[in-house]
Write a structure and sequence with these properties.
mainly alpha; 21 helices
Length: about 500
């Protein structure tokens, strides 16, 4: 009898903890959405929106204050015997600084700066701007699949609604302002990606030291700043893939109907953002199959099969309706991507596959930190450079991008070592959560390679298409830090240098 009461009490406590955790997560997301929108409204109302110099000064001041507070917290913790709290303080400090970098970059960068395929800011344009303006002015989806109009609609729908709301506060509802305000959706997605990175690290079993290492890599990865300040679906696609990753882990821990339906909705929305988000579905499908085989042995496959059927009934229509619409209207294939033609000056197919995919072009790595979309063709080096600088160059002192590239290159070697180590070590191999990070890293990178092989153009190598990859890699890096105590000091030192130069690069 006492045991029964104890079990009921324990179950009730677990339920309360889970409920409090979910409430905290929702509040965290609401806070971030509110902060991004209010920051945009305040910057525009005061006239500092797009003022790089003033916003960069503000960014640097906040970063310095947070750093000083962290140093004080760490010193006082060690002095008074509470040194363990330094990791918690570090985690929150890194998250704050990462969010400051994302919001600061968005506020200081006009939508026409370092963008991709925005084209004419007019409803007659066929780029991202035209797509948005058609929704805002005509209240309808594009009636052709010309150029960027083939893209999945979720980002543009969210962008149009958010832009309409923000512009209600101002009298100058010009086409430019309507398009520029939509970048807040990308910024929100980029900030939430950092929050999800922490949750995934926790769900993957990482402790404080590993979580801090994970967040330092992703918080200061410039690819998140760049995608978070643009008007296109890249940042939102990365966020939806991260939600899919997180809820796949949660479903594996608790295969409830609630988690099954949530995961189905997430995958539907992810595919409604970009078809390429389906790459995570390949890993989730493998996990579904694995769990189904286990259920067969336990003679419980019936319940699981019914959940899979419901999952498919929700996710497939939600994720594929726009592709099916375009197939019916325009005979567009379900996996269509705009083809640029071999006559394009971005075409790289004339170079041998080994040089493009397998080898590391050391000469290109050493000749300068920035990419050249018209002449570069080596995928590994281009991924590294574009993760740091996109396809752009910057007017900053030359040592800053060079040292940022150097530290990122060494960190990439650590990441490769972490992947190989996770595959080789038996103790880590038995942890399915770490193996999921390994599989996701390999599958996403492999999908990037296949995409480049199918579409051999310079722009196909841009890291913005696989920004999601940084998170499973950072999970493995965090695990590496936990299992290599001696090397972890040097790793944290390297991450600190990387963070400093990343912040300098984008707030100089």
């Amino acid at each position: 009898m006492v045991s029964d009461v104890s079990d009921i009490s324990s179950t009730s406590d677990n339920f309360k903890r889970e409920k409090n955790k979910k409430t905290k997560e929702w509040l965290e997301e609401v806070y971030i959405i509110s902060i991004v929108l209010l920051s945009y409204l305040l910057a525009r109302a005061t006239g500092i929106l797009g003022n790089e110099q003033l916003i960069h000064v503000g960014m640097m001041l906040i970063l310095i204050l947070v750093s000083v507070a962290l140093i004080w917290q760490t010193w006082s913790g060690r002095r008074f015997g509470t040194g363990q709290s330094q990791y918690n303080a570090g985690i929150y400090a890194v998250m704050i600084m990462g969010i400051v970098m994302r919001i600061g970059y968005m506020l200081s960068t006009n939508c026409t700066v370092r963008g991709h395929d925005l084209w004419e800011i007019d409803p007659s344009g066929a780029g991202h701007a035209g797509y948005l303006l058609q929704l805002l002015t005509k209240h309808q989806l594009p009636d052709t699949n010309t150029l960027q109009f083939y893209q999945q609609p979720l980002f543009y729908i969210l962008g149009a609604v958010t832009s309409w709301f923000l512009n209600l506060f101002f009298d100058d509802m010009t086409y430019y302002n309507l398009v520029d305000a939509a970048k807040t959706v990308s910024c929100i997605a980029s900030c939430l990606s950092l929050v999800l990175c922490r949750r995934i690290a926790q769900e993957s079993g990482l402790k404080d030291q590993g979580i801090l290492c994970t967040l330092m890599l992703t918080a200061f990865l410039p690819a998140f700043y760049l995608t978070g300040g643009t008007v296109n679906p890249d940042a939102l696609a990365a966020l939806m893939m991260l939600y899919a990753y997180l809820f796949t882990l949660r479903w594996l821990r608790n295969q409830s109907w609630k988690n099954t339906i949530l995961l189905a909705v997430i995958f539907g929305l992810a595919m409604m953002t970009k078809i390429s988000c389906g790459v995570v579905a390949l890993v989730t499908a493998g996990i579904f199959l694995w769990q189904f085989i286990i259920a067969l042995h336990k003679k419980k496959a019936g319940k699981l099969l019914s959940k899979y059927l419901v999952f498919g009934c929700i996710s497939i229509p939600l994720g594929m309706w726009y592709s099916i619409r375009n197939y019916i209207l325009f005979n567009q294939s379900l996996t269509y991507v705009l083809w640029q033609g071999e006559q394009s000056d971005l075409y790289t197919g004339s170079h041998p596959i080994i040089q493009r995919i397998l080898l590391i072009d050391v000469d290109n790595l050493l000749q300068g930190p920035y990419t050249d979309v018209r002449s570069d063709y080596n995928l590994p080096v281009y991924y590294l450079k574009s993760a740091l600088f996109g396809e752009f160059s910057f007017d900053v002192p030359g040592f800053i991008p060079v040292l940022l590239l150097f530290t990122a290159f060494v960190l990439s070697l650590f990441c490769i070592s972490a992947v190989i180590g996770s595959i080789r070590k038996r103790r880590i191999r038995r942890d399915y959560r770490i193996m999921i990070a390994v599989i996701l890293s390999l599958v996403v990178y492999g999908s990037g390679v296949l995409f480049y092989l199918k579409y051999p153009f310079g722009c196909s190598m841009d890291f913005r298409y696989i920004t999601f990859l940084a998170v499973p890699l950072s999970i493995l890096l965090g695990k590496y830090a936990e299992t290599h105590k001696v090397k972890s000091f040097y790793l944290h030192l390297l991450l600190s240098i990387y963070a400093v130069f990343s912040a300098l690069m984008y707030s100089y």
